[in-house]
Structure formats: structure tokens, C-alpha cells
């Protein structure tokens, strides 16, 4: 018998909400978080829009001394983790040093955070100083601020998590794969509690410029940003870069019940595969990603027809959306036409590694609150994308199981499955 793994806390920092409550309301409203870029001067760029997290103040979640030692992606992850741990009831009272510590055996608590790119704003600023002034004027903390593992490490330091502290780097699949790794850590008995999800903050000149050169970003609607991200729509012209973090507290069911925790959902399954095809494009048949879905369903001990909602990667690119449609059809068969599918990237933009964590939170909310998040801007459906993508407005209904898929450059495919929690099993 597999050890049951449950969700007891969630946290979100996103372009459409800086808390789970704000995020849930925005999903139901179909609110867009995409606007003109404010983090740098976009003069000379074809792309001038993104899904930014506005008015973010790290001191709302933890003290400024800690925040000064964190890049933006780490601050997002730490803020989301703080909200998740507070909701889970796992943070004790502040000690004499003003710090809160996790309320469980510290060495039984691990952390796995997905991050694809690291502290790009730190890299950009340090390179500027290096080339303009010289190496002695670089930021003193350049290296510990920029490297990918610092989100997991800083959260562990903040709250005394002494178990494994891992960073998952599989491009846009990183957040989802982190949750899968966390699931395995608890099932194996290595941990009783794992804080897991994904985070990204790469709305910088370097990142926008790089994605722009790949011809991956939307440029047609820079004067109407809210309409730019339009997954599965025939008039889509690329994705919109976003930023943010989504973090979940996962526990063994036994541990959660023993301490009287409120259980939000069950993380029931995970599947992963690689297309082994191309560095930026998915394999056109969708079979690689479809295999990951099938593995996740098998791991969750669910038949395809038992899943009511699929959160799609849904990037709004010419190649991804029809390929992902094939992927879903391959995995779910005839049930694909009856199931609700949507892409919240239409509202948040593509938050890279943060997407897997943020979208996992949306699945748990969908199950708990009985709604299907919409795909906004779906005004002219692509004939090659012929599933029910919940166009433009949220819909409501009973959801007992939801899956979320993420596809990353390099052919990485990751899928997680959540179930409504039941003590009786299925």
C-alpha cells in the first residue's frame, strides 16, 4: 500500500493575487494580471508586456534582514512558503530571536522547490557592473543570490527545516517535478513533511531579450496587454512571460491526522517523461507528454474518466497548444471530449518554473471550491484545439480529481494528480 500524501497548506504569489484568497477570487473573475513592463525601460524591445507581481513587499512575510539576502525569485518562494506553513499550522510562536520554527521534528521536514533560471536580475546587474566599472564593484552576494538552490536553502534556514533541501531544474516543468519529488520523499518515509512548489522571477532585460530572440513571446497585442495571452485561440502569437511562486505543504496522512491538521486534498499521483526530441519544441504527436499523464493516472489509481478537470500547460504558442491537445486525447481517450480543460496562463502569463506550483494550487482550489478556472481570451478557437477549454468565464461543478501538466524546454513532461480527500481511500 502506498503511503497517502495530503496537502495541508498553500501559498501563492502571482500576477493576479499575492495570497491564496486573492488568487482564488481572481481565477473565478477571469482577471488578467498582464500589463506594461515596469521593472525596466523597454525602449528598443519588441516585447513590452508581462505578468508582473505588483507592489510586492517581502517584509509582509518575513523580516527585511532576511529579504536583503534573497533574489526576487527566492523572496517569492519564501513568501508563498510562509503563507502555506501558516495555513498548515506548522509554524510556532516567534522565539527570542524573532524567528518562527517549524512545529514538527526538524529532520523529518524537507523542501523541494522548482526553479528554472535563478536570480536573473542579480546576474544582469552584476554583469553590468563588471563590464562598466570592473569586478570590484560587483554585488558582494552575487553568487549566493543568483543560484537556483537558494530558494530552498533560504526557506529551510528561515524555518528550521533540517531534512533534504532539493532544487528541481527542468525548465518550465520544474515546479510540477518538484511536487513529484516531494511525493516520493514522503512515500519512501524519508520525510513526514515536505514544503514544495515552484518559483520564478525573470522579467528582466536579459530574459525578455532572450525569449524575444527565440520568437516565443507575444508581440501583436502590446497595446492591449490583457488580451495578449490567448491559449488555444487561432489568433495567438506567443506566450507572455509572468513571474511568481506557488508552494504547497505536503504531509503523510498519518502525520497530518496525528496533529489534527485540516486536510485540503490528496496529492495522489505523479508521472514524468522526456520527449527526447528537440531542445525547445514538443514532439508533434504528443505521445511523450501523454505517457506522463498516463503514468500519473496509474500512480493515482484513477481511470481517465474519473478526472473532471485538467490544468493545461497552455502557453499560447503556435506549437504547444495543438500538440498538448493531442497529448490530452492520447492519455484520456474518448473522455478528453467530456472533461474540462483550461489554461490559467491566459491570466497569469507563463511563470516558467513558478507555473507548476501556482497551477497546482489552482487545482486544489478547483476541487475544494467546485469551479473550473477559465481560459480567457478564447474568442476564436483554433480548429486543431477542439476540447472544452472553459472559454472566458469560470464554470462551476463537482470535482473529485484534477490533473495538472507542465512541459519544459528539453522535452521535460511532468504531471501531478490531486484528489478530493477521503479517509476511506478512493
- CATH fold name of the largest domain, please? Peroxisomal Thiolase, Chain A, domain 1
Average pLDDT: 96
Question: What's the order of the H and E elements?
Answer: EHEEHHEHHHEHEHEHEHEHEHHEEEE
- Estimated share of beta-strand residues: 15-25%
Largest sheet, order of strands side by side?
5-4-6-7-1-8-14-13-9-10
Which descriptor suits the 3D outline?
A: globular
What is the name of the CATH superfamily of the largest domain? Answer: Thiolase/Chalcone synthase
The tally of domains stands at: 2
Structural class: alpha/beta
CATH level 1 class label of the largest domain:
Alpha Beta
- Whole-number radius of gyration? 20 Å
Strands, total number? 14
Distance between the termini: 13 Å
How many helices? The count is 13
Written overview of the protein:
- The mean pLDDT is 96.
- Helices cover 32% and strands 18% of the residues.
- The chain folds into 2 domains: 5-258, 3-Layer(aba) Sandwich (Peroxisomal Thiolase, Chain A, domain 1); 270-419, Thiolase/Chalcone synthase (Peroxisomal Thiolase, Chain A, domain 1), CATH 3.40.47.10.
- Helix 3 packs across helix 6 (150-159) and helix 7 (174-187) packs across helix 13 (353-369).
- With 426 residues, the chain is α/β, with parallel strands linked by helices.
- The longest helix is centred in the N-terminal third of the chain and has 17 residues, at 72-88.
- Strand 9 (309-311), helix 11 (320-332) and strand 10 form a beta-alpha-beta unit.
- The chain is built from 13 helices and 14 strands.
- The two termini are 13 Å apart.
- It has helices spanning 20-29, 64-67, 72-88, 120-132, 142-146, 150-159, 174-187, 205-213, 253-258, 287-299, 320-332, 345-348, 353-369; strands spanning 5-13, 35-36, 49-50, 109-114, 165-168, 193-200, 244-252, 265-274, 309-311, 340-342, 371-372, 395-396, 401-408, 412-419.
- The strands form 3 sheets. The chain has a 10-stranded mixed β-sheet, with helices on both faces.
Amino acid at each position: 500500500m502506498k503511503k497517502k500524501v495530503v496537502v495541508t497548506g498553500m501559498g501563492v504569489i502571482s500576477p493576479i493575487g499575492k495570497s491564496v484568497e486573492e488568487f482564488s477570487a481572481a481565477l473565478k473573475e477571469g482577471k488578467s494580471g498582464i500589463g506594461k513592463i515596469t521593472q525596466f525601460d523597454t525602449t528598443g524591445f519588441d516585447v513590452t508586456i508581462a505578468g508582473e507581481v505588483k507592489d510586492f513587499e517581502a517584509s509582509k512575510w518575513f523580516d527585511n534582514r532576511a529579504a536583503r539576502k534573497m533574489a526576487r525569485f527566492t523572496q517569492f518562494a519564501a513568501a508563498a512558503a510562509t503563507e502555506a506553513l501558516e495555513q498548515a499550522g506548522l509554524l510556532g510562536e516567534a522565539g527570542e530571536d524573532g524567528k518562527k520554527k517549524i512545529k514538527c521534528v526538524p529532520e523529518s521536514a524537507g523542501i523541494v522547490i522548482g526553479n528554472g533560471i535563478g536570480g536573473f536580475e542579480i546576474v544582469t546587474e552584476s554583469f553590468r557592473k563588471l563590464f562598466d566599472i570592473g569586478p570590484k564593484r560587483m554585488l558582494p552576494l552575487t553568487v549566493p543570490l543568483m543560484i537556483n538552490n537558494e530558494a530552498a536553502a533560504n526557506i529551510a534556514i528561515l524555518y528550521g527545516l533540517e531534512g533534504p533541501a532539493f532544487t528541481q531544474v527542468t525548465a518550465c516543468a520544474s515546479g510540477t517535478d518538484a511536487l513529484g519529488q516531494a511525493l516520493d520523499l514522503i512515500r519512501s518515509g524519508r520525510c513526514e513533511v515536505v514544503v514544495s512548489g515552484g518559483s520564478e522571477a525573470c522579467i528582466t532585460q536579459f530574459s525578455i531579450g532572450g525569449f524575444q530572440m527565440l520568437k516565443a513571446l507575444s508581440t501583436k497585442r502590446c497595446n492591449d496587454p490583457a488580451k495578449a495571452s490567448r491559449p488555444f485561440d487561432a489568433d495567438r502569437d506567443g506566450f507572455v512571460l509572468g513571474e511568481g511562486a506557488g508552494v504547497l505543504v505536503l504531509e503523510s496522512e498519518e502525520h497530518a491526522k496525528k496533529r489534527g491538521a485540516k486536510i485540503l486534498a490528496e496529492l495522489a499521483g505523479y508521472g514524468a517523461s522526456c520527449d527526447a526530441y528537440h531542445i525547445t519544441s514538443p514532439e508533434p504527436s504528443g505521445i511523450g507528454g501523454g505517457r506522463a499523464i498516463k503514468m500519473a493516472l496509474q500512480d493515482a489509481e484513477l481511470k481517465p474518466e474519473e478526472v473532471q478537470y485538467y490544468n493545461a500547460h497552455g502557453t499560447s504558442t503556435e506549437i504547444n497548444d495543438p500538440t498538448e491537445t493531442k497529448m490530452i486525447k492520447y492519455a484520456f481517450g474518448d473522455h478528453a471530449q467530456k472533461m474540462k480543460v483550461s489554461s490559467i496562463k491566459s491570466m497569469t502569463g507563463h511563470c516558467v518554473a513558478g507555473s507548476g506550483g501556482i497551477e497546482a494550487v489552482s487545482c486544489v482550489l478547483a476541487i475544494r471550491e467546485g469551479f473550473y478556472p477559465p481560459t480567457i481570451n478564447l474568442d476564436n478557437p483554433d480548429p486543431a484545439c477542439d476540447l472544452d477549454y472553459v472559454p472566458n468565464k469560470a464554470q462551476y461543478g463537482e470535482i473529485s480529481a484534477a490533473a495538472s501538466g507542465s512541459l519544459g524546454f528539453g522535452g521535460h513532461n511532468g504531471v501531478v494528480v490531486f484528489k478530493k480527500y477521503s479517509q476511506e481511500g478512493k
